């Protein structure tokens, strides 16, 4: 009869391409059960959005089934997102906060934020989406929700309950404003609004909270970086040179904040939106290369993505088999992998 030691030794062949170690050394193998010639086991990944999880499963089935005495193999894939070592005092149930930023407006930052949130949720991750674009909250329209959130009493006072849309817990100032109402606030009020939307919302337990920042390098990004330890920032740009230049300023802003706060704010990577067609391509990759940060991928210039946002049906809902859904799924996986790598490095330090 095959032994557990033989199974583990065989599975050492499988490497996690992001963490750079085999899945046995990483502690991914759980619950090995051997009954006669039947073997079952679980592979517990660091994120359900792992882009190679199906490859890992197939490799594990192949390796174990080739061992002497094994007649059948059942491999279950699960994930446990590990929280950052830095505690989230304002939002203790949130394992990772990820800011979605851009140096300028009009690059599709909110579209990217919505679709990455939906793509992560489709993998089974628990995901929140906070619309921190105070002056132009567009998340309610893009996620197809317009009602006012419910308020409940908790041990620490009244809190708003985020609205569920497409598997994502969503909160936006836009839920609380009339359609003809505009926000005319300055620095301190903006910071308080961000703090209220973090601590005043019943987020519960989340693997990832994506925060859609307003464009530019103003008060809101600075307030956010002061209020919560960010697991990272995704910078959105378009291929044109002018957009690249301003995206670089956004990257430099977070680098400056790192020094002033004495806290690491990793740039998880750059996303090139509206790639191809009249705008060309390659600008996002050049920006990433110039600043030695990862390039997470590009999203095609496609009217279907814009129409989906207008209709409250993000293109990520279309799944990996569509061009648009596949692009967002790939980028979401790359983003989650970067968070896992940084978290693993933090725990190993």
Helix and strand arrangement:
Blueprint: H1 4-11, E1 15-16, E2 21-22, E3 29-35, E4 38-45, H2 53-65, E5 72-79, E6 97-101, H3 109-122, E7 127-131, H4 139-143, E8 151-154, E9 157-160, E10 163-165, E11 168-172, H5 187-199, E12 208-212, H6 219-227, E13 232-237, H7 241-261, E14 267-275, H8 283-290, E15 295-300, H9 303-310, H10 323-348
Parallel strand pairs: 4-5, 6-12, 6-13, 7-11, 7-12, 13-14, 14-15
Antiparallel strand pairs: 1-2, 3-4, 8-9, 10-11
What does this structure look like?
With about 350 residues, this protein is of the alpha/beta class. The protein has two domains: about 5-80, Fe-S cluster assembly (FSCA) (GMP Synthetase, Chain A, domain 3, 2-Layer Sandwich); about 95-349, P-loop containing nucleotide triphosphate hydrolases (Rossmann fold, 3-Layer(aba) Sandwich), CATH 3.40.50.300. It is about 35% helix and about 25% strand. The protein has ten helices and 15 strands. It has helices at about 5-10, 55-65, 110-120, 140-145, 185-200, 220-225, 240-260, 285-290, 305-310, 325-349, and strands spanning about 15, 20, 30-35, 40-45, 70-80, 95-100, 125-130, 150-155, 155-160, 165, 170, 210, 230-235, 265-275, 295-300. The strands form four sheets. The protein has an eight-stranded mixed sheet with strand order 10-11-7-12-6-13-14-15, sandwiched between helices. Helix 2 (about 55-65) links the parallel strand 4 (about 40-45) and strand 5 (about 70-80). Helix 3 packs across helix 10 and helix 7 (about 240-260) packs parallel to helix 8 (about 285-290). The longest helix has 26 residues, at about 325-349. The protein is globular. The two termini are about 40 Å apart.
């Amino acid at each position: 009869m095959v032994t557990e030691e033989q199974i583990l030794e065989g599975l050492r062949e499988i490497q996690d391409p992001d963490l750079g170690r085999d899945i046995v050394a990483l502690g991914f193998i759980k619950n090995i059960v051997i009954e006669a010639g039947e073997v079952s086991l679980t592979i517990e990944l660091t994120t359900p959005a792992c882009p190679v999880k199906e490859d890992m499963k197939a490799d594990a089935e192949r390796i174990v089934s080739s061992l002497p005495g094994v007649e059948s193999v059942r491999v279950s894939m699960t994930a446990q997102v590990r929280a950052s070592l830095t505690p989230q005092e304002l939002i203790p149930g949130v394992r990772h906060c990820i800011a979605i930023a851009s140096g300028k407006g009009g690059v599709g930052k909110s579209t990217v934020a919505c679709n990455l949130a939906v793509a992560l949720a489709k993998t089974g991750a628990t995901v929140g989406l906070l619309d921190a674009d105070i002056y132009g909250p567009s998340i309610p329209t893009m996620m197809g929700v317009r009602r006012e959130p419910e308020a409940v009493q908790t041990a620490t006072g009244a809190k708003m309950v985020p609205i569920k849309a497409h598997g994502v817990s969503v909160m936006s100032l836009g839920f609380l404003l009339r359609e003809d109402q505009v926000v005319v606030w300055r620095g301190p009020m903006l910071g308080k609004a961000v703090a209220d939307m973090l601590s005043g919302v019943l987020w519960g337990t989340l693997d990832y909270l994506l925060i859609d920042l307003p464009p530019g390098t103003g008060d809101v990004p600075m307030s956010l970086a002061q209020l919560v330890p960010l697991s990272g920032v995704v910078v959105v740009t378009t291929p044109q040179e002018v957009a690249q230049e301003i995206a670089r300023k956004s990257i430099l802003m977070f680098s400056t904040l790192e020094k002033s706060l004495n806290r690491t704010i990793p740039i998880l990577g750059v996303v090139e939106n509206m790639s191809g067609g009249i705008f060309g391509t390659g600008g996002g990759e050049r920006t990433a290369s110039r600043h030695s940060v990862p390039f997470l991928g590009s999203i095609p210039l496609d009217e279907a993505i814009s129409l989906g946002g207008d209709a409250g049906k993000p293109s990520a809902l279309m799944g990996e088999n569509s061009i648009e859904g596949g692009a967002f799924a790939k980028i979401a996986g790359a983003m989650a992998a970067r968070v896992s790598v940084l978290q693993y490095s933090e725990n190993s330090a």
